[in-house]
Specification:
heterodimer; A: mainly beta; seven-stranded mixed beta sheet; four-stranded antiparallel beta sheet; B: five-stranded antiparallel beta sheet; 55% strand
Chain lengths: 113, 114
């Protein structure tokens, strides 16, 4: 069964550094999402992406965040200047339709020191 | 703003008993309500979902009910087993042409004691 994959599984970075989190959505899916989960807390929506455009973003997704689909398979989340409070598990998700199941990747644990 | 409240935060049951988790949502335009199970350190996995045109849905030991008027929905697990132990998240979503973000509840840590 196809799955969403994410790399790296764990990323450690220094405060102020840029990080890029990578995701490979399920191949026939057209709708892509990023969520984050701070340890012990709920999953929070960051951004949704369709047709090479951001379709919606949350208050968390400020100017330090950006997303890109650089090719036909990858979907990336970039944080330009990381802060301590960016430390969290970041999940990518994809779906094949706007009302269809969102399948989550295994997550990237980001630790900002 | 959009919000989903989930209760209880922790739930401990004996194997074989039933477990019920309840959620309320604020956005009356929400029309899709999935439930995810998350084991420690793993990804959230969909276990059941319901859309706003349906009041109840069942899949083996798992059922979900939706009351649109009251804006609440519930997960029912019958004949619980130790492997049901996990954190369960409800979510609500408004679906539109360009997608549909999920707004999650705070999660319920279910512990099934053998």
């Amino acid at each position: 069964e196809p799955e969403v994959t994410q790399t790296p599984s764990h990323q450690v970075t220094q405060m102020g550094q840029e990080v890029i989190l990578r995701c490979v959505p399920i191949s026939n899916h057209l709708y892509f999402y990023w969520y984050r989960q701070i340890l012990g807390q709920k999953v929070e929506f960051l951004v949704s992406f369709y047709n090479n455009e951001i379709s919606e973003k949350s208050e968390i997704f400020d100017d330090q965040f950006s997303v890109e689909r650089p090719d036909g398979s990858n979907f990336t989340l970039k944080i330009r200047s990381t802060k301590l409070e960016d430390s969290a598990m970041y999940f990518c998700a994809s779906s094949d339709g706007p009302g269809e199941t969102q399948y989550f990747g295994p997550g990237t644990r980001l630790t900002v020191l | 703003g959009e919000n989903v409240e989930q209760h209880p935060s922790t739930l401990s049951v004996q194997e074989g008993d039933s477990a019920v988790i309840k959620c309320t949502y604020s956005d009356s335009a929400s029309n899709y309500f999935p439930w995810y199970k998350q084991e420690l350190g793993k990804r959230p996995q969909l276990i059941i979902d319901i859309r706003s045109n349906v009041g109840e849905k069942k899949d083996q030991r798992i059922a979900v009910t939706l009351n649109k008027t009251a804006k609440h929905f519930s997960l029912h697990i019958t004949e619980t087993q130790p492997e049901d132990s996990a954190v369960y998240f409800c979510a609500a979503s408004f679906i539109y042409n360009q997608g549909g973000k999920l707004i999650f509840g705070q999660g319920t840590e279910l512990s099934v004691k053998p």
